[in-house]
Amino acid sequence: MGDEQGKSRQGDEEEPRIGVYVCHCGVNIAGVVDVEEVAKYASKLGNVVVAKDYKYMCSDPGQKLIQEDIKENRLNRIVVAACSPRMHEHTFRKALEEAGLNAFLVEMANIREHDSWVHMNQPKEATEKAKDLVRMAVARARRLEPQHKPRVKVKKAALVVGGGVAGIQSALDLADMGFKVYLVEKTPSLGGKMAQLDKTFPTMDCSACILTPKMVDAARHENIEILTHAEVEEVEGYIGNFRVKVRKKARQVLEDKCTGCGLCADACPVEVPNEFDHGLGVRKAIYVPFPQAVPLVYTIDDEACLGCGMCEAVCGPEAIDYEQKDEVVELEVGTIIIATGFDLFDAKRKPEYGYGRYENVITGIEFERLVNASGPTGGKLLRPSDGKEPHRIGFVLCVGSRDEKAGNPYCSRVCCMYSIKNARLYKEKHPEAEVFIFYMDIRAYGKGYEEFYRQAQEEYGIRFIRGRPGEIVEDPETKNLLVRVEDTLLGMPLEVELDLVVLATAIEPATDSEKVQRLFRLSRSADRFFAEAHPKLKPVDTLNDGIYLAGTCQGPKDIPDTVAQASAAAARAAIPMAKGEVETEPIVAFVRRELCIGCRICERACDFGVITMVERKAQVNEAICRGCGACAAACPTGAMQIRHFTDEQIYAMIEAAMRDEPEVAVKEVEG
Amino acid sequence: MSEFEPKIIAFMCNWCSYAGGDLAGTSRLQYPPNARIIRLMCTARLDPAFVLKAFAEGADGVLVAGCHIGDCHYVSGNLKAEKRVQMLKKLLPELGIEPERLMLRWISAAEGERFASTMKEFVAEIKKLGPSPLRGAR
Fold first, then answer.
1. A5 close contact with B: CB closer than 8 A
2. Is residue B18 a contact partner of residue A543, using CB atoms and an 8 Å limit?
3. pLDDT tens figures, A269-286
């Protein structure tokens, strides 16, 4: 074969001598597939020197078994029939390396995920399938060639996307470790959703009081560069060497001149609903989202601005620049942390609760803003319909969570606790008030949460009614609300009249998560949140090397979990940066020059600009090749190939899938 | 005589559909055992000749499965596969093979159920068509 990798490398010189290892995986495989028969069958395949079955191939003794055979029987190719290669290929590659064999000379036959687990009631067919899969793996193994992982340098800089508490925490951790961090936030200020909250459960510390110092730390940190009012537009490259384009939207206020004095906003004659207060209050056309904004730089809302020039007239430092244009900043980073957060379920999608129709039905986040001292009412919770203090309040949980009809079967994980927190807050100020919580189950799983819940019941006298309200109707005269619910503990229907109803709306994937997914080539799990590389063992990695997840973009979580995950993501991202270099996949294109006719079809097939023509033959830039194989599939002569996925290897598998092999000789079989 | 059991070759991308198959496994979703999967890093690697080879070897059906449009790990590899499959579907009748014997499906890593239902559906479809006219021709 014309593979230009040297012939001197191991496994390349001699006839294949293959060892086949069939894993029982306890009873996971052996309970369905006749593993002994499969091993016996494998022993009769061409080039197979030894075939064995063993209880757990991935265990230490299992790996030792392979390693000893490699030495004793001079094996140069290994087939492991076990679980998915996505599960344990790495394990066996390491085992081969330890035994002095190139890591890429192992092939796995997936007889668990793709066989024993999906044909549980068909042991005969599953065993036949296992034999076929082993035969295919052996056929491919014969043609495997050693591969060497290229090493690439890792830039000691990270991009953190999203400036909520997760992004801030990740950025601070990485910056403290000495890495340069670019923290990109879409809105004009850091802070995210946490900045909008009033008190936090179960400690009742004020959200802003614990968050804003972190925001300031991030702004002051010499290793952190904050880009607010900015969005990532383009991402190229791979772990160690990402090239990112970020669009800094024009604020029409010069960041280096604005002192945040606020005279401009005082002078501005335009008032629009304030998104920070969920439209409950107003802001000016030139604004900061909230008083503790970081950076404390004003931004002109292009759509609302009349261009009257009042702000410019009062601005001492001459920071207003109506002509300011968007700026595209190019960054080079080694790793990326995605911390793009969540959005809230639109309560109007549950019309039976009347949100948007009944004035006195509000959402949890609106409650937070209304009880917050810096909120639109100065911290006084008043009924929207008549401005009176409500006496009877009800909190409805699981609005859009654990709700198949709403498309969200998952639990949002924070609603029980923040609703109990809000109920307690109100009772503290208004001990005479009657407060109800309508719940399906109370999920108080965190540290101190159950105790917090018990206190709410026992000391605060908050009434918990187990049942999901069927509907809420408004009395058109009083604007009071009638909640109809079946109390599932008493097994009887109830009607509860309330002055105010607060809906605990679900945490949903951020509205632009699809865009983020495409930009960073992430995948999403069934709940539509970004998927981690492994649900248990790689909870903050993604399948895209060098990109990590932090916070609620990966799934609903509370503040402590978000912060913990953000630190975890920073720690993971630091590994390649601390090492300074990483090994990358050797699965890239290569050219068999003698077959190349210079037709340039491969060049057009490649989306990454990897192929150039040198002396009328195709040449691959391996450093940027991603190994998708589009060029190889398009090549009319077979000159263009993908390492570890050559035409011969794939044809061999097709043939082996369809044809049984003639028996060679009876060889050693061990149990 | 026992019922006709088709032999199916499936080409699947590593990132989405093969992983979807793994999820079907961990979720213990049961489906017929007729397919033999060949893992590619991306369906972009699918040389149309692989499909023709599978039919020439007597496969009763060929399934190609990759990431949903827009989800491709390599951005647009699946679009290339889609074009090639469209081309093959026009070519196959010229070789005496019903185009229904070639199926293209997008199955994400999260779609274990879609993986299992695709297997059921495709096996049923091929059973209806009967053995490939090229079976035993090699």
1. no
2. no
3. 999 999 999 999 999 999
Measured distance CA(A494)–CA(A470) in Å, rounded: 10
Nearest CB neighbour to B26, from listed A113, A115, A647: A113
CA angle, A392 as apex, A389 and A397 as ends, to 5°? 115
Q: Is A165 left (phi over 0), alpha (psi -120 to 50) or beta?
A: alpha
d(CA B74, CA B41): 9
Q: Could you tell me if residue A400 is left (phi over 0), alpha (psi between -120 and 50 degrees) or otherwise beta?
A: left
- Residue contact A654–B50, C-beta within 8 A: yes
Helix segments in A521-636, DSSP class H: 559-579, 601-605, 630-634
Cis amide leading into A16 (omega within 30):
no
Length of chain A: 671
For A178-204, the DSSP string reads: T-EEEEE-SSSSS-GGGGG-SEETTTT
Chain A contact set for B26 (CB, 8 A): 113, 117
Q: What is residue A85's DSSP assignment?
A: H
Neighbour count for residue A476 (Cβ, 10 Å)? 8
Say yes or no: B3 contacts chain A, CB-CB below 8 A.
no
Do B48 and A133 make contact, defined as CB atoms within 8 angstroms?
A: no
pTM: 0.82
> Does A612 touch chain B if contact means CB atoms closer than 8 Å?
no
Paired tokens of A646: 């050559």
Q: Would you say A180 and A226 are in contact if contact means Cβ atoms under 8 Å apart?
A: no
**Per-residue pLDDT at A442 exceeds 90:** yes
Measure the CA–CA gap between A292 and A277, rounded to whole angstroms. Answer: 14
> For residues B67 and B73, is the Cβ–Cβ distance under 8 A?
yes
Q: List the single residue in B with minimal CA-CA distance to A519.
A: B75
Residues B108, A523: C-beta atoms closer than 8 Å: yes
Q: Are B38 and B64 in contact (CB under 8 A)?
A: no
DSSP-derived pairing of the beta strands A271-273 and A282-284: antiparallel
Q: Return the sign of the alpha-carbon dihedral for residues A364, A370, A373, A376.
A: positive
Phi, psi of B67 (to 5 degrees): -70, 155
Cα-based distances in Å from A50 to A22, A68, A656 = 11, 12, 19
Q: Which residues of B touch A114 (CB under 8 A)?
A: 21-22, 25, 37
Dump pLDDT digits (tens) for A76-108: 999 999 999 999 999 999 999 999 999 999 999
A230-238 vs A241-248, strand pairing mode: antiparallel
In three-state secondary structure terms, A247 is strand
List pLDDT tens digits, range B40-95. 999 999 999 999 999 999 999 999 999 998 778 888 899 999 999 999 999 999 99
Instruction: Provide the pLDDT for residue A663.
Output: 59
CA atoms of A609 and A467, how far apart (whole Å): 59
Contacts with B42 (C-beta within 8 Å, 6 or more apart), sequence order: A627, A628, A629, A630, B13, B14, B15, B66, B72, B73, B74, B77, B78
CA atoms of A327 and A315, how far apart (whole Å): 23
ipTM of the modeled complex? 0.97
**Dist. CA A311–CA A253, nearest whole Å:** 10
> Which residues of chain B make contact with A533, given a CB cutoff of 8 A?
none
Distance, CA of A381 to CA of A500 (rounded, Å): 10
d(CA A627, CA B16): 16
Asked if A654's CB is within 8 angstroms of B57's CB, the reply is yes
Interface of A with B in 549-568 (CB under 8 A): none
> Taking all residues of chain A, what is their mean pLDDT, rounded to a whole number?
94
